UniProtKB/TrEMBL annotation:
Protein name: Uracil phosphoribosyltransferase
Gene Ontology MF, one: magnesium ion binding
Biological pathway: Pyrimidine metabolism; UMP biosynthesis via salvage pathway; UMP from uracil: step 1/1
Function according to Swiss-Prot or TrEMBL: Catalyzes the conversion of uracil and 5-phospho-alpha-D-ribose 1-diphosphate (PRPP) to UMP and diphosphate.
EC main group: transferase
Cofactor binding annotation: Binds 1 Mg(2+) ion per subunit. The magnesium is bound as Mg-PRPP.
Keywords: Allosteric enzyme, Glycosyltransferase, GTP-binding, Magnesium, Nucleotide-binding, Transferase
Positions bound to 5-phospho-alpha-D-ribose 1-diphosphate: 78, 103, 130-138, 199
Keyword GTP-binding appears in the UniProt entry: yes
Pfam family, one: UPRTase
Organism: Natronospirillum operosum
Signal sequence, renumbered to the chain: none
Activity regulation: Allosterically activated by GTP.
Length: 208
C-alpha cells in the first residue's frame, strides 16, 4: 500500500482544530467534511482526462473531461458518514456504496451487518472513507468485501492513521492507496489512536 500524508497547510490547520478537546459537535462535523473534500482533491489528482468539444457561447471550444473509471464512495458506518458530504462535494456524480461493520466483542473480528454496493462496482474506483484507521480491522474487512465484489481500484481516505493499521493494510493489500491527514504515534490499550481525535463517531454524531 502506498501511503500519502497530506501536509497541505489547510489540512494541517483543520486537523489541529479537530484535535481540540473542547471542539463543538458542529465544528467537528464541518471540519471532518472539509478535510474529506481536501483529501478527495488529492486522491483524484491523477485521474485521466480526455479532450472533447464544448459548444460554448462563442462556438466549439476545446474542453476536458474525466476519462476512465467512475467513482464510488464507500463510507464505513457509522463514522464514515461524517466525511461523505465533503467527498461528494468534490465528486458529485459518484455512487455511494455503504458498508456497516461492528466488532464482535468475543472474537474481536469485524462482522458485517450492512452491505449495499453500487451494481457496477467492478467498473468503478472505490474511495473508502472512515475517519480513523486504528487497528485496520474494519478497513481490511471493507477492502476484502470490495475486492470480492470485483472492485479492482481502491483508495482509502482517513483523517488519522495509526502505524498498526497502516502495517496491516500494507501487508494484506499492497495495491490499496491510503490518503491521510496524519500518521499518529500508536494505539493505546483501548485501541484509540494517540494522540488521535478520541471517538470520532461520537464527536460527529454528538453522542459523546
Ligand atoms: N475509532 C475512533 O473513533 N477513534 C480512535 O482513536 C480509534 C478508533
Amino acid at each position: 500500500m502506498s501511503v500519502r500524508e497530506i501536509r497541505h497547510p489547510l489540512v494541517q490547520h483543520k486537523l489541529s482544530l479537530l484535535r481540540d478537546k473542547d471542539i463543538s459537535t458542529r465544528s467537528f462535523r464541518e471540519l471532518t467534511g472539509e478535510i474529506g473534500s481536501l483529501l478527495t482533491y488529492e486522491a483524484t489528482a491523477d485521474l485521466e482526462l480526455e479532450e472533447y468539444t464544448v459548444e460554448s457561447w462563442i462556438g466549439p471550444t476545446a474542453g476536458q473531461r474525466i476519462k476512465g473509471k467512475k467513482i464510488t464512495v464507500v463510507p464505513i458506518l457509522r463514522a464514515g458518514l461524517g466525511m461523505l458530504d465533503g467527498v461528494l462535494s468534490m465528486v458529485p456524480s459518484a455512487k455511494v456504496s455503504v458498508v456497516g461493520l461492528y466488532r464482535d466483542e468475543e472474537t474481536l473480528q469485524p462482522v458485517t451487518y450492512f452491505e449495499k454496493m453500487a451494481s457496477d462496482i467492478d467498473q468503478r474506483m472505490a474511495l473508502i472513507v472512515d475517519p480513523m484507521l486504528a487497528t485496520g480491522g474494519s478497513m481490511l474487512a471493507c477492502i476484502d468485501m470490495l475486492k470480492a465484489a470485483g472492485c479492482e481500484q481502491i483508495r482509502a481516505l482517513v483523517l488519522v492513521a495509526a502505524p498498526e493499521g497502516i502495517r496491516l493494510i500494507e501487508e494484506k493489500h499492497p495495491d490499496v492507496e491510503l490518503y491521510t491527514a496524519a500518521i499518529d504515534e500508536r494505539l493505546n490499550d483501548q485501541g484509540y489512536i494517540v494522540p488521535g481525535l478520541g471517538d470520532a463517531g461520537d464527536k460527529i454524531f454528538g453522542t459523546r
